[in-house]
């Protein structure tokens, strides 16, 4: 009889819960860690904990795979330090003290670690000299180098989907005019976030050698004006107001390493992902 593989998802919010459901469907035994486990589906084993403050981890299971997918409680340096740096350090300390035979730790990071902003293509090998909150994300990634546990970071960018419809709602309300600063944007549907993480676990369990880092973005970086114009057409609206939020960053993140590994996107570009959301709105 084949032993049932197990997965511990630390930070079982939206993406973590989607991943948990995928792993459960693949026959994994799944535990989900979050502060309020009442929100977890019944097929996920709950672990109530605050990773940034709790150090005992007495009720935490030892699993084949661990996924660290937390969200900061606030968009501040201290909020990011608590969630990403301190939380991950606590987790690594516990894993090392318990001498777990974890096959791999997956860390959910962000394209914020890239500093490029002149429309450059960036790959996982590109230089990372972030400023602001990106510094904490990179600091957390660097913690992975201090452990003997095999690790992989996944740098997501522009996560959207049901419940993450900020840009769509902006355009629908008449916003959408983009000024002279028309940056390239990178996106990933939340279902593909979970899909990528599940695929990496699956490949590792099959003995495939994983890289230390992957860019988690879809196939089509696009100018912000291109995206808003397309959304306006689909929504039958004419933007008359400037977007209320824009970014000074403009880069094109390559997902070629992920494609070479064999991952097939459920939503390969923003049109595929947003069209489904729009269809359900009408």
Automatic annotation (TrEMBL):
This is NAD-dependent epimerase/dehydratase family protein. It comes from the Bacteria. It comes from Spartinivicinus poritis. Residues 8-163 form the NAD-dependent epimerase/dehydratase domain. It holds the Pfam family Epimerase. Gene3D superfamilies: NAD(P)-binding Rossmann-like Domain. InterPro entries: Epimerase_deHydtase, NAD(P)-bd_dom_sf, NAD(P)-dependent_oxidoreduct. SUPFAM superfamilies: NAD(P)-binding Rossmann-fold domains. The lineage of its organism: Bacteria, Pseudomonadati, Pseudomonadota, Gammaproteobacteria, Oceanospirillales.
């Amino acid at each position: 009889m084949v032993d049932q593989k197990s997965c511990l998802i630390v930070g079982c919010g939206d993406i973590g819960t989607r991943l948990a459901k995928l792993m459960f469907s693949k026959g994994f035994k799944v535990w989900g860690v979050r502060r309020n486990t009442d929100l977890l589906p019944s097929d996920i084993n709950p672990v109530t904990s605050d990773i940034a403050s709790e150090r005992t981890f007495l009720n935490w299971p030892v699993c084949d795979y661990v996924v660290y997918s937390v969200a900061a409680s606030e968009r501040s340096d201290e909020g990011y330090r608590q969630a990403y740096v301190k939380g991950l350090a606590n987790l690594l300390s516990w894993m090392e003290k318990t001498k777990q035979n974890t096959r791999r730790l997956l860390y959910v990071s962000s394209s914020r670690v890239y500093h490029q902003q002149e429309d450059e293509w960036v790959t996982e090998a590109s230089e990372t000299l972030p400023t602001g909150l990106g510094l904490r994300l990179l600091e957390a990634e660097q913690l992975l180098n201090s452990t003997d546990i095999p690790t992989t970071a996944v740098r997501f960018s522009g996560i959207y989907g049901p419940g993450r419809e900020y840009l769509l709602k902006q355009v629908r309300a008449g916003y959408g005019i983009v000024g002279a600063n028309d940056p390239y944007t990178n996106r990933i549907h939340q279902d593909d976030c979970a899909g990528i993480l599940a695929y990496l676990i699956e490949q590792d369990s099959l003995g495939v050698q994983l890289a230390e880092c992957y860019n988690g973005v879809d196939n089509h970086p696009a100018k912000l004006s291109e995206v808003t114009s397309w959304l306006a057409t689909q929504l039958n609206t004419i933007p008359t107001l400037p977007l209320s939020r824009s970014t000074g960053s403009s880069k094109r993140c390559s997902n070629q390493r992920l494609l070479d590994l064999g991952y097939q996107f459920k939503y390969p570009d923003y049109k595929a992902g947003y069209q489904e959301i729009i269809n359900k709105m009408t």
